[in-house]
Amino acid sequence: MQVSSYLKLSIAVALATIGLKTAAWWVSGSVSLLSDAMESLVNLAGAVFALAMVVIAERPPDEDHPYGHHKAEYFSSGFEGVLIFVAALAIIWAATQRLLVPQPLEAVGLGIGLSVASSVLNGALAWAMLKKARSHRSMALEADARHLFTDVYTSAGVVVGLLAVMATGWLWLDPVIAIAVALNILREGASLVWRSTEGLMDRAVEPEVRAEIDQTLAGFQHQSIRFDHVVTRRAGQRRFVDLHMHMPAGWTLGRAAALRTSVEQALMSAVPGLRASIQLLPMDVEAHFDDARDLL
Fold first, then answer.
1. What tens digit of pLDDT does each residue of 99-116 get?
2. Where are the domains of the chain?
3. CATH 3.30.70.1350 for domain 207-295
4. Fold of the domain built from segment(s) 3-200
5. What is the pLDDT of residue 236?
6. How far apart are CA 47 and CA 3, in angstroms?
7. Contact partners, residue 249, CB within 8 Å, separation at least 6
8. CA-CA distances (angstroms) from residue 85 to 79, 116, 119, 149, 220?
């Protein structure tokens, strides 16, 4: 199943969980269940936007975007993080009103049952989406999966809190739980926004990927061949590496180009989705970066 297919399924599940959680709030009057339903609205909006960004990210390179559109997925993660902030503030406002004016709860058992059913749907989908996101290195899919897991944890906390309300009769527990839910999803929103920002700033590849690159280069390095100025970056599903390869000045261009091709192919075999760019230099020539004139 493609990444876009998982996001379409996420939209369908979000619609189903919104219906279940809204019904749970309607029959019980619980503001914590209302907060849970509002987070599902964020799931829906996030999944729709993520699908749009994945479609854009899959577009091939063009004249205006010669390196492709892979970074579009980071916008999805940032957008979902902002939506989480908005939902959390709305939850805190509603919970504060209920804390000031407590109201009795009704049909709590039915409300809990509907909430648990929605959590089972979200949990199963989130597990499948996260597994797919890791294999395809999709930031948009991973962000949506992690948000769904947050939704599951949130629902579990709400259910435990409502059971405590039923056991103690303390109505103030309901809005307090809702506020705790809001603070938890604020944390998740901040994490998504930060990771999105890091991706847009050309963060280096993951340590395990860099280790694969270094190990592959080590297989070619000897007294007459060395590598330096190895620079990496991520762009959505793509990984990029730029480096210099030094070799004897007496080598022919054909021999040097053949070795470079072998190194590039080895790197791209070791790291699927990697794009390697290698500059050839004689052994006794050094490239200099960060010249003061480059900053003018």
1. 777 766 666 677 778 878
2. 3-200, 207-295
3. yes
4. Alpha-lytic protease prodomain-like (1.20.1510)
5. 65
6. 12
7. 282, 283, 284
8. 10, 24, 21, 17, 49
